[in-house]
Amino acid sequence: MEMLVSTEWLAARLGSDDLVVLDASMHLPDTGRDAAREFGEGHIPGARFLDLASFIDTGSAVPKAVPTAAQFAERMGKLGIAPGSRIVLYDDSAIKSSARAWFILDRYGEEKVAILDGGLAKWRDEGRELSQRKVDHAPRHREEPVSRREVRTRDEMLDNISDGAWQVIDARDAGRFEGREGSGSQGHIPGSRSLHFTRLINEDGTYKNIEAIRREFEEAGIDLDGPIVTSCNSGMTASVLLFGLELIGKEGAALYDGSWMEWGADPDTPKELGKAN
Predict the structure, then answer these.
(1) Residues 20, 87, 232, 276: which is the catalytic one?
(2) From start to end of the chain, where are the E strands?
(3) Does residue 53 register a pLDDT over 90?
(4) What percent of the chain has pLDDT over 90?
């Protein structure tokens, strides 16, 4: 299964025994949208609600931290997802939240995970069936997995400012990256590059082709042969950049999960204003 699947591909396989469809929608607080309520009003038939907003490590000091291995196993077990299932993630979110779910599942070793290209909006626009029926699945025991993707800490990011081991890409918009007046931001991590996550997305909500995505990273000043860490405000849209990197064959990029919510709130971390050097 490819990392990115079309609505046609999914429609032809709905109901397959080994296929799990997960609604990974999550919305920013200022949108006033409720992902759980919207799931109840209409979702892809047979889909299960991931509840991505609560899929975090509540015991961590890092805001909205990725879940622990134990929390991951508990959530997957509660959803009744068998190891080895083909999992298709979708969202109906402006922040492309299914990429965050993809990162979490990939981090904990799920081998067959894809994102529905264009998400629920494309599915709905094509007139495809929606359901209000919630399908219950028997919970199952899941062993705690071993994590296989890196999550960088604030201290590691501080060290990186002086040694420059990793290229840091910031997925926030240019105004917040530069710390413009009225943006509510103090700028960015010194030395980081700016690549707003929307630059990987077409107007219809689908991902750009591989060549176009590669060009966006290169035009942002990124050496795709070197190590990369992505960041944003809370670790959400940074995952869109990670997914884009995987699409173009760049493996091993890491996430600064605390991102600006952690960095910007710390009076002792250095901040840089203006455009990337």
Answers:
(1) 232
(2) 4-5, 19-23, 48-49, 86-90, 113-116, 151-152, 167-170, 193-194, 228-231, 254-256
(3) yes
(4) 96
